[in-house]
């Protein structure tokens, strides 16, 4: 084959055609040859990118199915990086809870290898993108798509990219037969998160109502005078008896009228206690920092509450997270209006 290529002489070929057909016919034949060659190259280039789109659609579907299988077996909890390259599906076994950049909750249920080879395209691995809206399977930077668009150069994707808008903007390059080439990875924790957060908000409203009723009963029985701290954790409702006039962080006027325990167990949400917030406008019952609410907002992180926070304005700002069925998750504790005067009278009597 190599010897044949070495013997090929374009000048001799042109001379042979000219001697046989003459200059005019030779020129016409040459132009036709060049045109057919250019058309063939264009066809194969276009066809190559079309085949690339077909392959991406097939491989992303395979990867999504594989990750869903892993999630069902092991429970995928998280990925370490913004771009987590998929190079670990051939792993047969591992130690710990992380395989590559992926963390699982039940590593003993790993049934690898899940694939014989980690899929690549044009020499690039796919990766799982840790995005603000979840996880996405994306072809690697450098892959050339239809329209000669190159991922990472002409089409940039990061953890804040509006994926739907990007697919619309680059429809010719990022869609194939109506299917996106960037696919969302649906994990079990994501599927249930909305339901869990909805349930959390409903539970908080119920527990806050119960706590407010219980503290009002204590106020009626014993007269609540004050709370010591800005955040006074409600861990004292199960107390049956105590010495002095203080139970937990709460001070009362008539400790002998305590009829505890006022609850069989201390209410919690997501492993966190509730607390009474000493606020400039009074006392409020609040779920503790770290509780995740509807809309994926976390108290103390996304929603910060202090003694000077405008509570009503905060609830209006985050209605999805701080209400349930139009009922607020942060409720004011209405104590008897005469407790301050009574506190002063007791102080004078002492």
Shape: elongated
Whole-Å distance between the termini?
113 Å
* H/E series: HHHEEEEEEEEHHEEEHEEEEEEEHHEEEH
Overall number of domains: 2
- How would you characterize the largest beta sheet? 5 strands, antiparallel
The structural class is alpha+beta
Give descriptors for this structure.
350 residues; alpha+beta; four-stranded antiparallel β-sheet; 39% helix; disordered N terminus
Set out the fold topology.
Elements: H1 2-7, H2 10-21, H3 23-74, E1 76-79, E2 83-85, E3 98-99, E4 102-104, E5 120-121, E6 124-125, E7 127-131, E8 134-138, H4 163-169, H5 171-174, E9 175-176, E10 179-180, E11 183-185, H6 188-222, E12 224-227, E13 231-233, E14 246-247, E15 250-252, E16 268-269, E17 272-279, E18 282-287, H7 311-317, H8 319-322, E19 323-324, E20 327-328, E21 331-333, H9 339-349
Antiparallel strand pairs: 1-4, 2-7, 3-4, 5-6, 7-8, 8-11, 9-10, 12-15, 13-17, 14-15, 16-17, 17-18, 18-21, 19-20
Helix pairs in contact: 2-3
How would you describe this protein?
- This protein is of the alpha+beta class and 350 residues long.
- The protein has 2 domains: 57-186, no CATH class; 190-349, no CATH class.
- The protein contains 9 helices and 21 strands.
- The protein has helices at residues 2-7, 10-21, 23-74, 163-169, 171-174, 188-222, 311-317, 319-322, 339-349; strands at 76-79, 83-85, 98-99, 102-104, 120-121, 124-125, 127-131, 134-138, 175-176, 179-180, 183-185, 224-227, 231-233, 246-247, 250-252, 268-269, 272-279, 282-287, 323-324, 327-328, 331-333.
- Strands 13, 16, 17, 18 and 21 form a 5-stranded antiparallel beta sheet that branches.
- A hairpin with a 2-residue loop joins strand 5 (120-121) and strand 6 (124-125).
- The longest helix is centred in the first third of the chain and has 52 residues, at 23-74.
- The radius of gyration is 35 Å and the shape is elongated.
